[in-house]
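Structure record:
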Amino acid sequence: MATNTVTTVWKENMHFESDNPSGITFSIDAPQDGSDGVGLRPKAMMLSSLAGCSGLDVVSLLKKMRAEVDDFKMIVHGELTDEHPKYYHKVVVEYHFYGSDLKEDKINKAVDLSIEKYCGVMEMFRRFADVTTEVYLHEQ
């Protein structure tokens, strides 16, 4: 069974520095008094993790399927509950693909495989949120 370990250190005010298992560090802070505005906000970072996890799957699968795209981006909308502790209870993941010869069937298959089989972060989100996905093809 795989285990990941990160270390997060308080720097000052509302600023923390964290690492990931490969040793790369990043800053975390919050929009409260004493924030220096130098870091990522924890809840927004969760949405980035969701996009990153699924995006890595999709790019890898499209490469294996020989379905080239010129550009690809994901937009994730997360709706927080009103009461504390606030958490995402509704999440929409938009997949936007750009290109002149987009293979719709392969793109949809890659996204579906990520959503249903490979993306562990997506599965974690489904444990506490209603997650929906949308695929947009932008022919250029």
Notes: The first strand starts at residue 8 and ends at 12. The two ends are 44 Å apart (CA to CA). The mean pLDDT is 95. The beta strands are 8-12, 15-19, 25-28, 71-80, 88-99, 130-139.
